[in-house]
User: Fold this.
Amino acid sequence: MFDKIMIANRGEIAVRVIRACKELGIKTVAVYSKPDINSLHVQMADEAVCIGEASARLSYLNIPNIISAAKNQRVDAVHPGYGFLAENAYFADLCETYNIKFIGPKAEVIQLMGDKIKARELVKQAGVPLVPGSEGNVNSYEQALEVAREMGYPLMIKAAAGGGGKGMRLAQNETDLKDALDMARMEAKAAFGNDEIYMEKYIEEPRHIEFQILGDEHGNLIHLGERDCSLQRRNQKLLEEAPSSFMNEELRKKMGQVAVKAARAAKYYSAGTIEFLVDKHKNFYFIEMNTRIQVEHPVTEMITGIDIVKEQIKIAAGEKLTIKQEDVKINGWAIECRINAENPDNDFSPSPGQIGRYIIPGGPGVRIDSAACENYTILPYYDSMIGKLIVWGRNRQEAICRMKRALQEFTIENVATTIPFHLKVIDNAFFQKGEIYTNFIQRRMSDNNNR
Assistant:
């Protein structure tokens, strides 16, 4: 096992990794930007190193500074969390060059699965079902037009290097196509430095269902069941639950086997996620693999009792998985709400600033993953997440009631938050019936009569 791990991240995920390390008896090193000096992850770690100015580019994305800090502190491994450098193949490769274990898969696997076109080609060869789409990259409007006429509308244009909903555009007809193509390319270039795009048939009213994967370096691979991440706004997840109200045992088993097959095709180890779109007829299609810990991993932990971050660290240390597929049991229901410093009444505009009173909910089955506290400042330079509220119930109805109670208890003063929005979602009749899909917010949250 490692003696010392550096967490190349901030906020709630840095705190989450530090907690896992403490339970494993591993010393921790936090990195921080200058305005993050008093942050909780800095206070909780055994050691802390300043890596730069406020801008993420000069600190949490500053690879030379992070590698220097890791070498100077003589760490055995680096945990990248999610976001920032978590899916940066160059960073993973550099860690290996300096004999520092990157807690995640190999650099070539990150690179392969990060390229959505190559990932599709790989899993297709393994027999994994794909959304009908273009064969590889679409290089011109003329080619896009040809593909569109063959596939039919509506269709999605996606960034090959995409993630987080960036570089995605919907074309309903031929009139939309050129603008959608140009916008997707421009956004992809700005976000990823790569303007390659591909096209997929748009699946109407789909569920976004993902399977949590754990694999070790000895060829053992399992899944921990599914998460339903269909509740999104502009392709960004806002609320997740596990299991999915749409699933039955037969479909879960089938999708789980396919998820493991896709991960095996990539020679994957570590914690990762295979993401699918599922249509109303229960046909499912691979969309991508995330080669890191996910924001929404706690809902899976709550229903399986498995600490995914600790397993991830043990895998990186070369240990064999001690959990077999038959050991994974789903118990009850979990829901996670992402509590962001955003104003839902003003198009979810960011609301940075200093928190006043901060009272977190408690009681049975309630978990808070957060780095915030009273007088904590939400900085304008980074993601606006304050924390994650996760609840567990014996069934979906109990989990919904518990989430409503917990959201009502959660007090965060002086900054606008998404708590009122989540309360509206929880009260929505369609949500309560489990009738959710990726465009739920556009269709149901603006509907005055949602009975």
